[in-house]
Each structure stands twice: as structure tokens, then as C-alpha cells.
């Protein structure tokens, strides 16, 4: 919602990846410059291309944009300024585990992990950011969680999941996500790199 004026003006592009068969993002797909969803019938049997490889291709295209910008900005500036010619690209993923843990195609999984790692470690400075939602915070599901500089945890079922999601020690610093009651939907704790204390927030409806 906050990005919508910038999307309308062309200063921001949102790329949507929805492995839930389009169930989450399809209603708002007109907002996306790129839209990719997981449909097992989307694969190409003639080229042996799985629909999971489509996720990899979208992420790899974002890496290409990132690297091209790095080349243009090298020696000029360390921070990209979004314009209509070179907009901020925000890649929205829901559910991330479907890209990192549940992919059956080994080649697709390898390419997805490689592209995501590059984007998360190098993309922000040149205006390519990743926003991802995840239900299972275990390490094997998201091995590169520390590359996300901003982490948000809504209500969790177990106290161990708090540190899995936000980082070691954050429950002890007050992020009691397992204590958020059902009656307070939208309440969450936010952790940002460089800030040692979690912040309690509530999203609007």
C-alpha cells in the first residue's frame, strides 16, 4: 500500500512469485511488473523445463539487472536512486519454503538458492530488494536467513521459533512472539540489523 503511488508512477516495480498456484497474489496481479506462480501444468514437457525452473529464471533475471547496475554505478556512487528508467525492483515471494526446501527439481533448487543469495547479499545498494514470507523458520528451510537485514515475526506457536526467525537471543530481549494471543492479529516483532532491541508493532487491517 505504501509503495502504490511509486508503482503507479513507475519508480517502483514489484515482481511477484507465488508458489501457491496463484492463490495469494492473483487478485492483485495487475500491480506486478512480473508475475510467476506455481502451477504443475505450466511446465514444458518438450524441453523438460519444470515450472519450478520458472522461479529460478525470474530470480536470475533480477540478478542480471543487479549486475548490470553494479557495472554502471561502479566508481560513480554506492547507492542507486530509483527512476522510471531504472526503478526500484521489489521481489515479493510467498511462500519462500516452496523455493528453498520443497522444490523437487534439483537443478531448479540450486539455481534458486544461488540467485537468492546473490540478491540478498548485493541487491539493496543497486535497488533490487527481496521481501519473502515464510511459515516454517527451521534452518534447513531457510539456510541463509541472516542475509535478510530486516525480519518480522508474527504470532508463533513455540518459543524456540522466535530465535529461529529473528536471531539468537531476541526472545530474551522481549520478542515474545509465542505469547501473542489469537485476539491480537497483526501484532508482530521487528528486528533490524544494527539495532539490538526488537520493536513491537501492529499492522493495520
Give me the Rg, rounded: 18 Å
Q: State the end-to-end distance.
A: 12 Å
Global geometry: globular
Unreliable spans: none
Oligomerization category of the chains in this entry:
single chain
Q: Order of strands across the biggest sheet?
A: 2-1-3-4
Strand percentage: 15-25%
Task: Summarize the amount of helix as a percent range.
Answer: 25-40%
Give the number of helices. 5
Structural class: alpha/beta
H-E order: HEEHEHHEEHEE
Largest sheet: 4 strands, parallel
Beta-strand segment tally? 7
Mean pLDDT: 90
Q: Could you outline the blueprint of secondary structure elements for this entry?
A:
Elements: H1 4-9, E1 12-18, E2 32-37, H2 51-73, E3 88-94, H3 97-100, H4 106-122, E4 128-133, E5 150-153, H5 160-166, E6 187-192, E7 199-202
Parallel strand pairs: 1-2, 1-3, 3-4
Antiparallel strand pairs: 5-6, 6-7
Helix pairs in contact: 2-4
Structural write-up:
It is a single chain. The protein is of the alpha/beta class and 205 residues long. It is 28% helix and 20% strand. It contains 5 helices and 7 strands, in the order αββαβααββαββ. It has helices at 4-9, 51-73, 97-100, 106-122, 160-166, and strands spanning 12-18, 32-37, 88-94, 128-133, 150-153, 187-192, 199-202. The longest helix is centred in the N-terminal third of the chain and has 23 residues, at 51-73. The model has no long low-confidence stretch (mean pLDDT 90).
Amino acid at each position: 500500500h505504501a509503495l502504490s503511488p511509486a508503482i503507479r508512477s513507475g519508480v517502483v516495480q514489484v515482481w511477484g512469485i507465488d508458489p501457491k498456484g496463484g492463490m495469494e497474489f492473483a487478485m492483485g496481479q495487475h500491480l506486478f511488473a512480473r508475475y510467476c506462480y506455481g502451477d504443475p501444468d505450466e511446465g514444458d514437457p518438450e524441453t523438460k523445463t519444470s515450472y519450478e525452473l520458472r522461479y529460478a529464471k525470474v530470480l536470475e533475471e533480477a540478478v542480471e539487472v543487479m549486475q548490470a547496475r553494479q557495472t554502471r554505478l561502479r566508481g560513480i556512487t554506492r547507492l542507486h536512486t530509483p527512476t522510471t528508467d531504472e526503478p526500484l525492483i521489489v521481489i515479493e515471494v510467498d511462500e519462500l519454503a516452496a523455493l528453498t526446501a520443497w522444490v523437487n527439481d534439483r537443478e531448479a533448487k540450486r539455481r534458486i538458492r544461488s540467485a537468492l543469495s546473490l540478491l540478498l547479499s548485493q541487491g539493496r545498494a543497486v535497488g533490487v530488494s527481496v521481501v519473502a514470507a515464510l511459515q516454517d523458520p527451521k534452518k534447513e528451510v531457510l539456510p541463509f536467513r541472516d542475509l535478510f537485514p530486516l525480519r518480522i515475526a508474527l504470532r508463533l506457536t513455540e518459543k524456540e521459533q522466535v530465535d529461529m526467525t529473528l536471531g539468537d537471543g531476541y526472545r530474551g530481549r522481549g520478542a515474545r512472539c509465542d505469547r501473542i494471543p489469537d485476539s491480537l492479529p497483526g501484532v508482530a516483532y521487528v528486528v533490524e540489523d544494527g539495532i539490538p532491541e526488537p520493536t513491537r508493532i501492529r499492522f493495520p487491517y
